Amino acid sequence: MKITKVASKCAAVLCAMTVMLPAAAVAVPANTAFSSNAIVASAAENDYASLTGDQYVAIGGQIKFEVNLGAYYRGNYSNSDFKYQWYYSDTQSGNLQWNKISGATGTVFTDTMTAAKNMRHYKVEITNTKTNEVHDTDWFSMRTVNCNAVTAKFGTASVQSNGYVKVPVSLSGLYNNLLSGASFELNYDSNVFEAVKFYSNTNLSVLDNNVSAGVYRVSAASVSPVTVSGGDLGYFMLKPKSGKSANGSKLTLTDLDLMASGGNLTGVVQYGTTNSSTTISTGSSTTSLYPVVQTQVKDRKIGFKWNAVPGAEKYGVGIYQANKWVVKKQVDGSVHTWTSPQVGTGTYRLVVLAKVNGSWVKADVFKHAFYVTVK
């Protein structure tokens, strides 16, 4: 028999990585697409069969499953030749113990979600009344419902020594802190940032790509569910454009699709999610990486004196020319003064940079630049 369903984003990622989701049913054909929440809609697919997928339902919300037997399944029989019986199980390990649901004998089953039904499994038994042939999970995998609403939260942004802005992301509300598939988009201001990269703090394998300017998609998956320790999912590294400040820029996580399946986990957990936003505020984290500079002009020479920056390996005196910053002079981290050779008259835009961990600190460079006039 064939089962065809529309794949969710997480399931599609898992399939792309040759990950097979666990199921209580027998093996399905190679052209089967796994889904957690879709019903077959196209005319061609209606020749086959569908059963509403695993789903998140908030407490007080409606659980709803619908089974559809297409022409391929019915064969020479009509819909009226089949009867249905729904079952549930709260077993979370070993052999599942199934309980018949009284009165649940239609193609549609509905119920109200409660805390006691979190992680409850459902199956439908289908009987051909003409032949007494009975099918359940050999036709349709069991389905699992849950009320685990997951909240994604941005952590405090910080400017790194290379000028990139690091923004952590955490998750709360995961079932036993388990996650095996994740898909989401980061919406950012492409006028401020020129590059984005996500780094996972879990054992999920990450696929990422820029969907378009200002949109960065992340997909991650694992064969077995991983434990997201302390909810620490990972972090974004964003590279500001030259002359741009990250402060005040807005980030938004959208289109979240999170799930857990495989390993010793019984059923598929399709988490409930909402969008999350933050406004970047790096405070004075960059300021502390810039020396405080004093200057003096004498005989058309510019004298510089600055304070020490913790961890500075070198210092560089930079000048803004031809629409870019150029480091004209480098000195060791133990040196805090320098006098330029004679320069022409005019006004110069200057800055003193520190090299920390092998990279020049350049974030917010325009905020720390200053002008010197030579007469």
Q: Give the radius of gyration.
A: 30 Å
What is the overall number of helices?
2
The named CATH superfamily of the largest domain: Immunoglobulins
- How would the global form be characterised? rod-shaped
- Which segments are poorly predicted (pLDDT under 50) over 5 or more consecutive residues? 1-7, 12-45
Mean pLDDT: 86
Q: What is the straight-line distance between the termini?
A: 89 Å
Number of strands: 29
> What name does CATH use for the topology of the largest domain?
Immunoglobulin-like
CATH class of the largest domain: Mainly Beta
Tally the structural domains: 3
CATH architecture of the largest domain: Sandwich
Mind explaining what this structure looks like?
Mean pLDDT is 86; it is low at 1-7 and 12-45. The protein is rod-shaped and about 105 Å long. The strands form 6 sheets. Strands 2, 4, 5, 7, 8 and 9 form a 6-stranded mixed β-sheet that branches. Strands 10, 11, 12, 14, 17 and 20 form a 6-stranded mixed β-sheet that branches. Strands 13, 15, 16, 18, 19 and 21 form a 6-stranded antiparallel β-sheet that branches. The longest helix has 8 residues, at 9-16. The N and C termini lie far apart (89 Å). It has 375 residues and is mainly beta. The chain has 3 domains: 9-145, Immunoglobulin-like (Sandwich); 149-279, Sandwich (Immunoglobulin-like), CATH 2.60.40; 287-374, Immunoglobulins (Immunoglobulin-like, Sandwich). The protein has helices spanning 9-16, 71-74, and strands spanning 49-51, 55-56, 62-69, 82-89, 99-100, 108-112, 120-128, 134-135, 143-146, 149-154, 158-159, 165-172, 178-187, 193-200, 205-212, 215-227, 232-240, 250-260, 269-270, 272-273, 276-279, 293-298, 301-306, 312-321, 324-332, 337-339, 346-356, 359-360, 370-374.
